[in-house]
Amino acid sequence: MQSVAWSLSLFLMALITAAFVIVCRGAAGERELRNPYRGRAVVFALTLIAGVLITLTTLSPWPLPAYAANPAPAAKVIDAVGHQWRWDLSESTVPVGKPVEFRVTSADVNHGFSVYRGKTRIIGQTQAMPGFVNRLRLTFDEPGQYEILCLEYCGLAHHGMLATITAVAE
Amino acid sequence: MVSEPKQTPADSAATASERLVLLAYATTAIAVFALMMIVGFLMRSAQATWVDLPVDRFYELMTLHGTGMVGTAGLGGAFVMWYFLGRHVRLSSKVMLTTFGLSLAGVVLIIGGILLGHYAGAWTFLYPLPAKSMGVWQPAAAAAFVVGLILIGVGFLLFYADCALALIRRYGSLTASLGVPQLISGRVEEAPPAAVVASTMAIIVNVLGILAGAVVLIMTLVSLYIPGMVFDALLMKNLIFFFGHVFINVALYMGVIAVYEILPRYTNRPWKVNRPFIAAWLAAVFLVLAVYPHHLLMDYAMPKWAATLGQVVSYLSGIPVLIVTAWGTLGNIARSGIRWDLPSRLLVFGVLGWAAGIVPAVVDGTISVNLVMHNTQWVPGHFHTYLLLGLLPMLLGFMAWAVQLRGEDSSFQRAAFWGYAIAGAVFCLSFLYGGANGVPRRFAVHVSEWLPVASVGSIAAAVVVVSVVSLALVIVRRLPQLGKTVG
User: B243, B324 in Cβ contact below 8 A?
Assistant: First the structure.
């Protein structure tokens, strides 16, 4: 997902930049009035159609598994509580290949419960908020260690708020 | 045939009090932007381990940088709006100076709260963090910060009240000054000028945003001194993000007035106020108000309809910018014989930055992407694209034009502009690349895997700072020209 987001963004930003560069390079040249709004209605309609398609494909099924209609039962439920500045987890091992549900809340301020594989790939996240329990449903495809970082700024040791969970093949 | 853009009586020299407003806002905007950029460079350098910045100082500077940039962006946008709206309706210099005075008082409190009281709760003051610092700062420090924001908000409300009254006196209602009657009737030749339509949108939206901000700031203040009084954290988050999103977005919508007003003077083509233009600005009123739930996509306690609204409206919000303002800019300059100089380059670059910044914003507003990108560096990546490369060039372009830098095109100015544009793009892309690779935002300490991208960002930031300070010096040297003739 991350690489798709990066590539798509880069492509579209380059496209917009190219349009500006082409128009600007010719802008100081000969004075010639044409209808600059030609084709705008078509682009507008295409943008709307693309929007409808993107909405349908990204929201159905609902992208947050625990909140989808009739979610599959979780193989394991783990309670996660954020504190300034540590995570309390009811368990620290999870099964590989089966849905695990994290019930995430906070004892003090807002935190961000984010599960990392290595230091460069997030596999899912939710907010940890006082007074609310958010259910994050994840499936761990590979055995090994995963890290939980806080992604909502929560004070001076925010960057050090770290926990580890281990995915074990059963 | 293209008609000459209409000049107004206010194109003549500014009065003494108007000159005072111009000088106060221009010098403050330039000074604060430059200082806050240096702060930003320091933070990025600390993440790259080039600079040894203690974590408490990092988060204080982060709070200062965010607050200073957002506040100055708002003031800069208001400056543009006041300057050009004042050509169509009578605005008060005294009110504008009062807004400036209140903002200055607010800034003093905010700086005091941060640098003396060590408040480091970020500019977003997410409840209940201001009241729960683990002993790092005292309630008085957070209170100074909160009251500072309230004072700035009051200043903005006064400014908008003055503008709204002037528009109502001239057009009869805000609906009329937004051009709604002409949208319905189709008689667009009778529509208000672009600056009036855009200003009306800014007034309606930002007054609502600031009022929401006032409510949540007062609730935060209460929570500082009455710990037993607990508010709903989700409600507070909704209010904060509604206020914050609206405020910074409206700064952009005010800043683009400079493009509508100045570019036609270069191209000799008036900015067309047609039905799509009015419809886009009318839509922007609702879209900017409704889009904020995209900040709360990872708050699963929010109802599904709100998350859906956040995603869908994020997408829709980009359309007026791309189809009306970006397309309109290209249409205005295409084969126009425009003379490229510092103001025209900066203004057109600003529109490009805004339009390009829409893309990563919309991408991040998609729930399935947000699940793996929220609160990574993708977020500062997208907002720096449309603020550093969008709003700031518009403001600098406006000021360069206002200090009579038109027609000049020295190699120094060109070098500073291109340094800013290219390094600024690299700086923003380094954030976006970091975000796509899991680098968190708002981390004082970076692990080794994240250092290369922080180093690239730091190098780019250094070039941006040097380039922008160079441009600022070019403008500052010409400040005595400000307001001598404002047309």
Answer: no
Chain centroid to Cα B119, Å, comes to: 23
Gyration radius from chain B CA atoms:
22
d(CA B393, CA B345): 9
**pTM here?**
0.93
Of the residues A105, A158, A161, the best mutation for testing chain B's interface (the one with the most B CB atoms within 10 Å of its CB) is: A158
**CB-based burial, B284-304: b 16+ in 10 Å, e otherwise:** bbebbbbbbbbbbbbbbbbee
Closest CA relative to residue A44, chosen from B283, B130, B79, B98: B283
**For residues A114-142, average pLDDT:** 95
Q: Which CATH architecture has domain A74-168?
A: Sandwich (2.60)
CB nearest to A6's CB, from B331, B433, B444: B433
- Residue B403 CB-half CA count within 13 A: 23
* Residue pointed to by tokens 């943008």: A47
**Mean predicted confidence (pLDDT) in B457-472:** 96
The string of pLDDT tens digits covering residues B329-378 is 998 898 888 889 999 999 999 999 999 999 999 999 999 999 999 999 99
Q: Which two structure tokens, joined as six digits, stand for A28? A: 């100081």
Walk across the sheet containing A162-168 and list its strands: A93-95, A162-168, A144-150, A111-117, A121-128
Q: A120 and B233 in contact by Cβ < 8 A?
A: no
Q: Which residues 364-403 in chain B show a CB within 8 A of chain A?
A: 364, 366-369, 371-376, 378, 385
Residue B70, Ramachandran bin (φ over 0: left; ψ between -120 and 50: alpha; else beta):
alpha
CATH 2.60.40.420 range(s) for chain A read: 74-168
Complex ipTM more than 0.90, yes or no: yes
Radius of gyration (C-alpha) of chain A in whole angstroms: 23
The answer to whether A123 and A114 are in contact (CB under 8 A) is no
What's domain B16-481's architecture?
Up-down Bundle (1.20)
B306: left (phi over 0), alpha (psi -120 to 50) or beta: alpha
Question: Contact, B80 vs B254, CB < 8 A?
Answer: yes
User: How many helices (H) does chain A have, and how many strands (E)?
Assistant: 2, 9
The residues that bridge with A83 in the sheet, in sequence order, are A86
Verify whether the Cβ–Cβ distance A6 to B436 is below 8 Å.
Answer: yes
Whether the Cβ atoms of residue B304 and residue B330 lie closer than 8 Å to each other:
no
Q: Which residue bears the tokens 């007074």?
A: A131
Q: Which residue of A has its CA nearest to B382?
A: A9
Task: Please return the burial class of B233, using the count of CB atoms within 10 Å of its CB with bins 0-12, 13-18 and 19+.
Answer: buried
